[in-house]
Structure formats: structure tokens, C-alpha cells
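Hi support team,

I submitted a single chain yesterday and got back a structure, but I'm not sure I'm reading the C-alpha cell output correctly. Could someone confirm the output below corresponds to the sequence I sent? I've pasted both exactly as they appear in my results page.

Thanks,
R.
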Amino acid sequence: MAALRNTYVNCQTDDGRPLPWQPPDLPDGARPDSIFFGAALAEMDGRLDEGGLTVYCTQDLDELPSYGRDVVVLLIGDEFTRVPSYFGRVRAIFRTLAPRPALASSLLREPSWVNFWSFAWYLRTWGNHAPGMARYRAARRRGSWTAPIWQLPVGTADQLELPVTPMAERAHDVFFGGSVGHHAGAGAKEAINPKVMSRSSMVAHARALAERRPELSIDLVTTGGFLESVAADAESYSRSLMDARISLVPRGTAIDTFRLSQSFRYGCVAVADAVPSHPSFYDGAPVVRLRGWDRLEEVVVPLLADAGRLEDLHRRSLEWWRTRVSDEAVGAFMAGRLNELAA
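Hi R., thanks for writing in. Yes, this is the structure output for that exact sequence:
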């Protein structure tokens, strides 16, 4: 492996302690949500036209270990689209999840309780986004330096690299594994969370489908909350996903979710109720979108009966992974943006 030309620091630790990082390997003590980005940063490093950068992977919107025009930030996990306070003190910011509030569906065109509360969440997100964006725009008007903010996919967390199983050899027709709520036993507040509403509906309709269509193999594995899902056995989850033709991809609290890229990586056919928007990563992706999980049966049954369409979506998903959302593709995207900035 070629020596890295830049300095990498992983701040994604339980105690907030910055750890020296040699991508692609994850340092001991770092959280699994940055595993994907180790490989992406290693790819980026080899494609940059210049070295000498310091790259921080962090969730902190207010403080970094150092600042300067040599500092690049990889911001992970902010669901409220907030603008980091250090936007004028670093070279560039890459962030997972949308950089500004976004809706995946129209409440007027697709009225439902999920979309109603999604719209309420959208308004709440604007309340968190607007103050920082106002400061960002004011700084630009003054002619002050403002770091560009670029969106990235959330990645695949600690999904295993496995050989791709042909569609005809997969044991399960439909698979979902993950949390329904964000926190186990959180109560009424969770009941109106768009993620919880979407996933509760998905699980109910998937179970009903399994009862009405016993000839289908439907594998549902639910956990008590997001952190429990993160801590779950990565090998068991990965092998179950690889063994499924269709992957159910309900929205998270934010629209993007690990499960979408994970499905592309394994060539599963992603069936989703919401798809994030981005010209490089998501627009035109081979996703089967349904307007609500109450339509699961009318979408899934004809899809499973059409072997040609399944195979086509399988191939397109693998190609989408390779060219759009893999660690190599994301690393190339990051290097391209930084090279343009330095030109």
C-alpha cells in the first residue's frame, strides 16, 4: 500500500478522543459508522493532486482539534442539516445526509400520516438549518472565506465484503433487518417520528404479506433501537441480506439510510418508500419506490414473478454500487471536488 500523503484523524469515538488514523484500517476504539469512509479516504488520498491536508472525521459541529486552510472535515450523522460553526476556518466540508432540509414525497400528491409528520420533521429541520445558513450566506456576502459543503452517501457501516450470490440461488424473497424505533421504549415522541411510522407500517404489511402468501420466503429481523442494530452481529446481517432477492428499505429519521447502499453492494432489489436526491449518488438509481407500505403486496408479488426484471435490477444495482456509491466511487468524488477547489 502506498504511503498516505495526508494526515487523518478519527474523532468518531465514544469518549470523543481523536485517534490517529491510517485509512483504510479503522483505529481501535472508533465507531463502525466510519468503516466505509476509511476505504473512501484511502482512495481519495491516492487521487489528490496535492498532499499536506489534515482530515477530521467527526460528528462535532462546533469544535475541531485544529483549524486552517489545510483542514478538511468529514462530518457524519447530523440529521438536522446544521451548518458547522467552523465553516470559515477550514478548507472544505464533506457531510453525510443532506446539507439542507429535503422532502422525499409531497404531502399534497401523496397524503398520508407518514408524509404529514415527514413534513412536520422537514419544518423542524429548517428551524435547525436556517440560523447557520444565514451566517454562512452573510459571510459570503462580506467576501469572507466559506468552505464548500458537499454531500456524501452514508455508506455501508460494517457490512462484510462477500462474493455476490446469483439471484436464482438466494433463499429468501424479501428481507429486512434493523430497528423500527430509534430508542427502545422511547414512548409517544417516537410514535410520530417519520422513521418509526414508516417502519412500523412496513413491518405490519410485510407480516401480513407473509400470512397471505405463504409460498414467499420473507425474513424479518427487528431490533429494539438504532444502537442495538449498530451493535448487532455484522456477519449475520450481511449474510441474510446477501441471501435475499428484495431488500426492504424504509426511510430513517433522515431520508438516507445505510440499507440503500448495502442493497446496491449485494445486488439486492431495493424497495423503498423514500429515496434521497443527489445527482451523483441517487438520482436515477435502480430503486423500486412505492408510495406507501400498504402497497407492498401489489409491488412485490409481480416483481418476484418477473425473473427478467429482477435480474435486470440486480445487475443495475451492482453497477450503481461500483460506479456511484462504493468507497472507491465516493473517494474519487471527494478527490475531484478538492482538486477543483485547489485549481
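A quick pointer for reading it: The mean pLDDT is 92. Let us know if anything else looks off.

Best,
Support desk
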